[in-house]
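Researcher: Next entry in the queue.
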Amino acid sequence: MSEAPPPDPPPPADPLAAGVLLVVEQLRRQVPGGIGTYAAGLLQGLAALPEGDRPTLRLYASREVERRDPLAAYGLPVHASPLPSPLLVRAWDLGLARVGEGSALVHSVSLAAPASVPPLVVTVHDLAWRAIPEAYPRHGLRWHEAALRRTAKRADAVVVPSREVADELVGAGVGLGEDRVAVIEEGADHLPRADLDAAGLVLGRLGVTGEFLLTVGTLEPRKNLRRLFAAYRAARPRLAGPWPLVVVGPPGWGEPSGRPPEGVVFAGRVGDAALAGLYALARCLAYVPLKEGFGLPVVEAMRLGTPVVASRVPSAAGATLEVDPLDVDSIAEGLVAAASDETLRARLSEGGQVRAAALTWRATAAAHVELWRRVAGSRG
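Model: Structure for this entry, 380 residues:
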């Protein structure tokens, strides 16, 4: 009588079975900025994954201070600290207020990261404060440098949005090697359908009735608005009409002072659907930061077919009209060409849409989950 075959081995335990705690303090900020867009895009991508591929998620942030909690929109359990945001981040800086007990892994979407009981993953979006220290307030320089060094000591892995940032991080002299750095590009499909009516209301409020150029971003020195405005002043007489430059974005710090050139109009912060509408209507997007880890406005515009003139940003991948952000004449020439040369505009539009189509938050989320499983499994 033959022996019965041995039973199949049990499936390997899921290293993320206890769930992932996602630290999304940036979404509590009054100006979430690009990091907030990344956090929201990552949550969007995770929600789009098949249920079997998506770990249990919990969100962590400071205590709610507004009546309407922005984190409630994601439909996930929220663990809120009793501390308000400034005190919580300060506690993290000091190694206090550890988080994550009972979770398989903790991931912080920025350098404002806690000390963690389980494995810790931190996203580092750029090292711009090292490249252009003059574009940061003194206290910001000190905090970023100290936070980077804390991350190098605490994190089991670091996510960066581009190969350029990975190379800078490995060469930063803080003890992070290639084995702990993962390059995961960000998505481009987070904006809703373009609302042309909402965009029209924004333009009407600004007195813009025809064609226009567009720039998008928080108003801060790193975005290089002074040179962009000087370039626009030089380019405007060469355009087919007195097309305004519409500036969209919340105030940051150190934004250009004094009277802007004629034709520059400030829209402030606008809703996502209206922003998509502005991209769709603009002759071109001008985005010329001094330093960028990825460059979300570039791919937002590309996805809607808008020609883009930009400094060298990783998200562009060769699909923009590249200019020198330190050379006003170079930027001015780019503005005139991207706004006026129809052959070039068609090429930029087509190439940009191809590039943006390859960037989805679902793919970004899947790559994060793969990294989380590897990190949690190796620690376990």
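Model: The CA atoms of residues 337 and 343 lie 10 Å apart.
Researcher: Noted, moving on.
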